Amino acid sequence: MTVSEGDQADTTPGPEWCLIATMREYPYGPNGSHAAFRSHGRFPAGAKLYVVGGFAGMGYETVTVVGYGHHRRAPITVHLPARFLCDWRVALVYRPAILRALRAAVDREASADRWNWDGLAFDSDAYRDRLTATATGFESWLGESAESAPAPVTSESAAVASESATAQSNSRGSAEISAGFVRRWLRRLRGR
After folding, report:
1. pTM of the shown model
2. pLDDT at position 34, please?
3. How far apart are CA 143 and CA 149, in angstroms?
4. Considering only CA atoms, which of 90, 117, 121, 114 is closest in space to residue 13?
5. Peptide bond preceding 27: is omega within 30 degrees of 0, i.e. cis?
6. pLDDT of residue 5
């Protein structure tokens, strides 16, 4: 007995909107690119992570993410501090493995609500608008402000910066000498 094409069930999940963020470089701040170690224990720096939900009681300081970890073939679900993530955005997810992991995380984790309190369809425009507002909120809360961003270097600012660096190194020189003295003194005490 053969089964006609109309009788076969479509097992491929349809695309769904999801909140997406990028893993920051260690030490998870504006100067992360200057660090020697640029990774997290579970995800590499720059990894694309799908944000499933978060812990509302903690003010969403910790979020639940799904993504591909170091040398993994299957996606994993991890709770991360939201400050480890940057470049918040919303996109349609088509990958079946990610969609299955998102659904499994919602079923398994109490914190994974997919930002859907009203029961909207995951492929609807209303749900996309809610996620866009959520992404904008996270980006403004965790994003770098214009005051903390480094200023572009000009010839005048470079001269002023070198003068201030020289002054700081002179003031640090006496502190480094006293710290070295203390270290030697402590080594002598331990040797007795």
Report:
1. 0.64
2. 55
3. 11
4. 121
5. yes
6. 52
Could you please report the per-residue DSSP string of 116-166?
Answer: -SS---TTSHHHHHHHHHHHHHHHHHHSPPTTTSPPPP-HHHHHHHHHHHH
End-to-end CA distance of the chain: 91
Distance of CA 133 to the CA centre of its chain: 18
- Tokens for 191, please give them: 């040797």
Kindly report the number of other CB atoms within 10 A of residue 112's CB atom: 23
In the chain, which ranges are continuous DSSP H helix? 96-108, 125-142, 155-191
| Mean per-residue pLDDT pooled into runs of 10, the chain (192 residues) | 51 85 71 56 87 86 90 88 90 92 85 81 91 90 52 39 49 52 65 60
